[in-house]
Amino acid sequence: RSLQLEERKPSQQIAQRRVRKRRRLRKVRRRVRKSREEEERKQHVQRRRLSSSSDDNSEDESMSEGEMARLKEEVEEKKKLIATLRNKPWRMKRRLKCLKEAQAFVEKFEGALGKGKGRRLYAFKVMMTKKIIKFNRDFENFKTACIPWESRIKEVESHFGSSVASYFIFLRWMYGLNLVLFGFVFGLVVIPEVLMGMPYGSLARKTVPREEQDSAMDFSVLFEFGGYCKYSIMFYGYYNNQRSIGLLQFRLPLSYLLVGVGIFGYSLMVVIRTMARNANEGGDGAEEGTFTFCWKLFTSWDYLIGNPETADNKFASTTTSFKESIVDEQENLKDENIHLRRFLRILANLLILCCLGGSGYLIYYVVKRSQGFAKKDRNELTWLQKNEVEIVMSLLGLVCPPLFEVIAELEDYHPRIALKWQLARIFALFLGNLYTFLFALFDEVNSKLENEKEIKNATIWALKEYYTNYTLYNNVTENIPPPNISPADVIRGPCWETEVGIEFVKLTVSDIQVTYLTILIGDFLRAVIVRFLNYCWCWDLEAGFPSYAEFDISGNVLGLIFNQGMIWMGAFYAPGLVGINVLRLLSSMYYQCWAVMACNVPHERVFKASRSNNFYMGLLLLVLFLSLMPVIYSIMTLPPSFDCGPFSGKDKMYDVIMETIEKDLPPFMADIFSYASNPGLIIPAVLLMVLAIYYLNAVSKAYQNANLDLKRKMQMQRDEEKNRRNNKDSTNQVMKDLEDLMPNKSLIPPPSAEETEIPADQLRKSPKVTGKPGAAATGKGVHVQKDVSLAAANPRAPVTRPPGPRPPGPLPGNARGPPPGQGMGRGRGGPPPRR
């Protein structure tokens, strides 16, 4: 056996060698095959390159003009299909297939529309057009990516719906507006004064008084914007009254006045433009109450919701809205005690008027009391006495809106009407508080003007005494030097513009503090208590009291609007107020986004933000107009302070414009402005503007009436079409009147013999058609009812059997309808027999 094994070893070795040799041959053959394929591929590419020019010429010669026109039509049809593919009622798989085929066809044959060398130029133009379209699309995506806080707002929108996100969009819009106003103020007023004006300590208006220097850097003083803050670029009194400053001869007083008025002009233009754009984008073409269920069924869902909890709330909200719509008519028909309801509503309005009057009186009383505190030594006053005006106004803004909601329960209005009343009352509260504060503030301004006259007279008397004494001692009447007094020791007036600016800055800062503390305590601390004490409490804190807070959209938006009104009014007296507001809006975006995501829960009824933007913009426009009046009043009526501000030394602030016209402009320009300011021209111009507004309003109402008529006609046409399809009597009153005028069918010719021979079963089964005056639609007489359909009535019985097999379709070459004769036509005979 060992000998047999030894004899087998050489044979096994030989077999292994043969296997190795075969593997090597296979590898070599594969390499040779790959090299041949690569050479063939290279030769094929070279042949295609060489034949491309000849192919172009051959295609030009082979394609006739008819083929080119047909190819062009096909390309245009494919382009039209690509543009309208979204509107096709097809499945997505079919859409994608058609899209790929159409794109491939267009890319393949679009370049062949030219001839000869023009084809290459056309292909180049097509290529450049595609690249430009792609660049524009990428640039639009880049602009969208550059929108600030877009991802943060989208996150809030996915959790809370578009109604909460609309507040943050409005906040971002306000931030952009204030950023532009900040650029105007700092670029044209603050920076020129810092770079080209006189430095700190050179004048009395730019120097802290000697008696205030010891406490000028105390935190309590700086917190109230006194000390060095009062005599800085933040306020009106720091700016010099030189007509031109620096090497550029910059007109600082003129720039200050134009910027102060231009802020209102730019804001007015932006608000009106935004309202017009929202009006163009927000119209849906349907009136309220028209197709209510269709609109709610197909448009009520908010597709930007990405949170399951919010989606559940939105589902419940939509269901509730359907129930409310169904029950609305039943609620209107309910019997209730109308006299009791009217009494409760009158009582509620009286209580709210008492709240508004009490808040206004309280603010007026506090401002008057603060004027008395201002005459005392500030070291003797407490912190509450120093800041009680701001504290009272902020507390009224916090306490009164919830009180209004409690009182509104007596009225029992519909929720939409109740929301409008609530917004109007909060608006009246804020507006009344603001104007009460202004009236009290202007009373204080009048008292300071009286004090300023006394100080001015005392200063003039002191200067006259100095010049008289200097002349007596030195026997000099010319070139008398000014008194050598340090700017810190100069007697100065109260500078009422700076005091007004300080009050507005303090109001803004206190509003920021109260808002942030309210969020921190009312939302964050409440959420912490509900979250961590819910496990060991007697009841469910999340479902019951106090539960998580909801985001108050209307209150936050109204607070933002009135804060912007204070900025508009105070920016003229405190140029630094715009910068403070920019920082406030910037921090509010991050702070409130965090508070919403961490502390709030979605509303029980998630409303879709559709038409509320223009309502808020309308409130903003009204606040802008009301903020403009006090500033215009102070510019045109009140005299400026004699020793501070860019208008010191003038009788009125607008005298800067008259001085510029007289000294800087040519004489004919002065004449033009004098003629333009003539009341004889201003009054006709105002009357012409009023007539133009009246005419445009009348044209707008005419267009609205025309639109209503067209909608009514479209509705009538839809009703007629629906009744025609359902084979019902006409609802058009004109058609009914025409039918009543022809009781004997005198205008309809007698039917022919063929028409009179109607089968009995047809008479029995389609009485509605044969009994109508307009049924003879094929005759040559008067067509009373146009295009009357002979459709059988819709079956009203429930379906109790599955549908039978579909009958075979028409043969090729035949019409789709039934064969002529007495068959199962539309409206002819009964339904098919049951199987």
Automatic annotation (TrEMBL):
GO molecular function terms attached to this record: mechanosensitive monoatomic ion channel activity
The record's Pfam families line, in alphabetical order, gives: TMC
What does the UniProt keyword field contain?
Answer: Membrane, Transmembrane, Transmembrane helix
Q: Does the keyword Membrane apply?
A: yes
Q: Which InterPro entries match?
A: TMC, TMC_dom
**Location(s), subcellular:** Membrane
A single Gene Ontology biological process assigned to it is: vestibular reflex
Q: Where is the composition biased (Low complexity)?
A: 768-782
- Tell me where on the tree of life, at the top rank, the source sits: Eukaryota
Q: Which GO terms describe its cellular component?
A: plasma membrane
Q: Which residues lie within the region annotated Disordered?
A: 1-70, 715-734, 741-835
Which residue spans traverse the membrane? 173-195, 216-239, 254-272, 346-367, 422-442, 566-586, 615-636, 672-696
| Skewed-composition ranges (Basic residues) | 17-34
Q: How does it sit in the membrane?
A: Multi-pass membrane protein
Q: What is its main location?
A: membrane
Q: Where is the composition biased (Pro residues)?
A: 800-821
Question: Where do the TMC domain residues begin and end?
Answer: 495-610
Instruction: Enumerate composition-biased segments (Basic and acidic residues).
Output: 1-10, 715-728
Which family is this protein grouped under? Belongs to the TMC family.
What protein name is recorded for this chain? Transmembrane channel-like protein
